[in-house]
Amino acid sequence: MDEMTLNVRTAAVRVDGLSRRFGATRALDEVDLTLERGITGLLGPNGAGKTTLLSILATVSEPDGGRVSVFGLDPRDAAQRVEIRRRLGYLPQELGYHRHFTVAAFLDYVAILKEITDRRGRAEEVARVLAAIGLERRARTRIRALSGGMRQRLGIAQALLGEPELLILDEPTAGLDPEQRLRFRELLSGLPGDPAIVLSTHQADDIAAICPQVVVLLHGQVHFTGTPAELAATAAGRVWAADERDGRAHLSWRGADNRWRHVGDDPPAGAELVAPTVEDGYLLLSHAAVSHQAGAR
Amino acid sequence: MLEGVAARSRARRLRMVMDLATVEASLLVRSVLVLAGLLAGGAVVWVLLSPTQPLWWNAGWRTNGGQLVLAMTVLAAAQLAAGRSRRDGMADLYASFPATRCTRTLAHLIGLAGAAPASLVLLGAAAVAVQLRGAIGAPSIAVLAGGLLLVIAAGAAGIAIGTRFPHPLAGVIGALMLFVTGATTHVASGAAIWLLPWEIVDDQLGSLPGPLAGYPPAGAHASELAGVAVLAGIVALALTVRSARARAALAAAGLLAVAVICLAGAMQLRPIPTAALNRLVSEVADPASVQQCTTAGQVRYCLYPGFGRDLPSLEAPVGEVLAHLPARPPQALTIRQATSLSLDSTFTHGHSQRQVSQWNAQLQRAPGNAGAATAVYLSVGSWPAGGGQLADARFDVALAAADWAVRLPLPIGSGQACVPLDQAREAIAIWLAIVATHPPAGELTDGLRGPGGGMQAAEVQNTIVQVWSPPGIDAGYLTGSPPQFTAAGYLLARAMTSLPEQKVSQVLSGAWSTWVNQRTTDARLAAALGIPMPTVPTLPGPHPGLGAATAPGPGNAPQSPQCTT
Question: Do B100 and A82 touch (CB under 8 A)?
Fold first, then answer.
């Protein structure tokens, strides 16, 4: 074991006072975060700073302020940054492809860029990830001939190359059909080596299903860190089922049982309390943040 | 311990660079653009080489005209490859890999080895074609290496462009700029043409009777291209490298590359040594001093060293003409190579005006420039290796030998060509050339028409006369202007070919001195042979669809003289 791996047993990712601005927009505002091994779900609305945070963790962009430590390594140092990248698998939110490459050739190319230099080992690794995402029969297909869902799976496959210790997936389930989403959950759950996985998504049920840890990012700030159950619990006593719609609710919608589900602070007349979900907790957090910001203005 | 980690890291990175370079090289090898460039380059080589004699001191340089085309497509392909990650929206993903932009650029540069097979295939195919056509001289390694370096330098430039500008149009513009530098060499003057990426228009390599020391300055030009390739690679790396130390090292290497380019440029601008030009002028003005002469059938064939390969294809048609002659003229026939080299500033830069004037005065005395020729002069570099062009060249030599046999003037270097108007010896000369070489009848008949399809005419003794051009006359296999043959003479010769050769020979043998007399008319010859005088079509006036007679109106232009010797 060399000194680059000495800190493997510390927190996978530690973020202290992380800030990032884009002109007048504060994308990240003094973010503090500690991510352990296992799957962490990152929830937040569009523009909350999720992609900015993930790209900084992936060493793609640099923060304006604050510190990041990945496996105890500092990405500001060139040598340590390379070492982080050697342990990293990253799926950006918007990934283009070399459309004239075949699936296998693309993965082989990425494997080289990940310094998997043994030819046979590389071929085995490409075959492994192809099988993992169910594209092994498409190995010789050109990427331009793949459907959107298949391309998304290919993006996930490239991130899995080299069995990364830190897997950063920015909206990996976008474009996947329900069965593929379930398979994706199965895939992440079965990854060897207990990697640290950070995935951002708008799908609260994905978070609830596979993430032991969830982080809610709103307006560039961390508003919640805990388990999905703890997130759901933040909405306890504030989710109701009623026959009529109540305008005082923060949000209400008619469910499959034809009854109105109200998320809010005040119970509608004749409503009965129901068990909250992760989605309810997230909605209430989000609403509170919006109200807080409006009040601050 | 830290040193060990760093060493392992470096080794890993190096292996990655080489693996990536291998992939990039294989992509370049299979690139449709490069393949298209190879085919287009092959076509250009064919166009540049096929009309000329395969002289290595010229063919090697011409071959690289095809390499210029290949270089254009390699530039575009390399630009596409270098800009691929940004163009395809994968910059963020690539930025998360241990392979930095700099190492990827380095891999792209090493991957340019993938362009070498196409360049070598083009070079090999051209070399085989040149050799199969009977090459004269030996290939210059410096010239041929220059073609490969041109392709590599263009590829490096493409990578530098693609690293900064990923849009495909950037590569197209780069390729077009390369084309423009190759197509506008005439804008440069003197030795400056050699500084451009490749020059294929303004040199006189094909007119040289042999390789000339320092012309073209191939070694220096190859060095320049190598310097450009390195400089382009350094620019590409400098655009991607982040560390100040690496930037400083690249700047130092860049300065070195610029120094090499400047040095190579200065060497290319050096004057050709006076001794070499003295020798060249002497070889051109006084070919007898260096030519090797062979006598066969009492005809002297004098060729520059290395051109002995052409001797059999010269002897055959001349021998056939001689075989049909009842009697030979008293003076011997000499067939000699000559060149119409003009010493322009690409040769004479750096030499005094006085010296240049002396050389030009010497060149004016070259045998091919004389008003009255004493030999048949073959243009250096124009003798074809085979096919229809060789058949034409053989006919032209046979006709020149026949002119000598019937005492018509040999092709003259200056002044206006004479017209053997109504002279039986003209038809006899044409007949001799036809029976000696048997050219296709269609080609002969084509000689009645001008370039626009109309009839050709000349004015002699205030009469517009329809004329006939021998096949291949415009290709310039012989230097100077042969007599201007008339359509009547050709038509009579064609009618003679319908008679048994023996019968014609008998008639000619019976009164040879009469037939070669300039006063003996076509009608008299026709009557002796028992054939009617062929009718010469009347010259059409300007008329849409028929074309126009290409002759000046009476009194509007200098008249052609009658052949009187």
Answer: yes
